[in-house]
Amino acid sequence: MLEGKLVKLRAYSKNDLEKVLEYINDEEVRKNLMPGIPYPFRMEDEEKWYEKLNPFGGGKYDFAIELKKTGEYIGGCGVNEIDWKNSVATVGIFIGKPFFNKGYGTEAMKLLVDFVFKEMNINKVKLHVFSFNQRAIKSYEKVGFKVEGILREQIFREGKYHDEVIMGILRKEWNK
């Protein structure tokens, strides 16, 4: 378990699935996560995803985010891809709408990045974020991520095209 002042990152429990489904099916949360059509998930989809979680990782690690004070599940984060040869990990995060703008996501991402650098011995952590998700971009910048590139008009959402922003942080920047 990884602990900060506000949140903990822990293994997922089957008891989290109902809240996962509730949060991920919120329109505002979902539109920021999926490059495809943001179609709602079913409980069957979440159960299949849960059954595929591997505690041995193999480079992919999924963490539930819970409030330290109450133990309440508020979102998830994890290492989604790993390029061992080039020492690059791709991460992602989502927070339930009731927990936006409270610093929980920023702290969870700091814990995740620290885990990747210290436990996985990775040189670079990167992520992708849609340009309309300014709240997330500001949070990632607080963690230390820098914009590395823009995929212009990469995503079609709500009737128009938007850019996809690629952000990254190097181990030497994290260690400063």
Automatic annotation (TrEMBL):
UniProt xrefs under Pfam families: Acetyltransf_3
SUPFAM superfamilies: Acyl-CoA N-acyltransferases (Nat)
Name of the protein in its database record: Acetyltransferase, ribosomal protein N-acetylase
GO molecular function, one term: acyltransferase activity, transferring groups other than amino-acyl groups
PANTHER family assigned: GNAT-FAMILY ACETYLTRANSFERASE (PTHR43415:SF3), SPERMIDINE N(1)-ACETYLTRANSFERASE (PTHR43415)
One cellular component term from this protein's GO annotations in UniProt: ribosome
Keyword Acetylation: no
